[in-house]
């Protein structure tokens, strides 16, 4: 009787465990059955917002349920990302996370409402956008190599502008300086407007900005574009060399990129479905062309490759921060 009771207890325990798992498995299999919330952690109108909306619209159509974008700006993206990561891990709340909220601020020691290394659960790569190194149209610097040579001849003599301290443009420029073994003087701004005014008037020598923000300037020839920070040339402006080419800096790459992140604990079936869906969308002409219009290149990435990508990027930017003595101040 005792042996029978023990086995009976084991069976009941196993049955309870299986029963408790069934709703989650069923939910993952039929996912989604209601609208999905996609949090964009920046104000409306920026390239991250536009890229997020392109993906959300296409994803909603592919999954048969609307993907509704909610803008939740603050603290360089960490406020919106934190809100998504606090949600139930059921696949119905997710966020767009860029390099700052994924790793830069954590590497700089900023206290965040989540731990990017353990709480941030990335399921899809949402494309990337290069930045461009620019100067005024009448600048003495005709090429990126001219900038590097001038900086080597007189360290600190070349000034570079960015949209703010530890902004993507600042980080990309410091990475360039680190690889080229040069010193330049950083001039941070609070946005691109004042920066462009000072660049065109010659108050600063060069700047690194998102390519979409200077589309009209490039087409009009009102600025000189020295290089693009991506690993490959941008198809819209194939005449612009990469930093690796123009500066003879093999391996240089500094893109603005976005990931789709969910709370940890989300069912693997949901992860796989979202990853497969978005990868398929990234290969369609509609998404590719929409992304190109805002300066982004659509690119698919498998789940395992996303984790490798994050680790590689984290190691790269951690090294840049250390070598360049970058801080939040």
TrEMBL record:
This is Tripartite tricarboxylate transporter substrate binding protein. It comes from the Bacteria. The keyword Signal applies. The keyword Signal applies. Residues 1-27 form the signal peptide. Belongs to the UPF0065 (bug) family. Keywords: Signal. It comes from Lampropedia puyangensis.
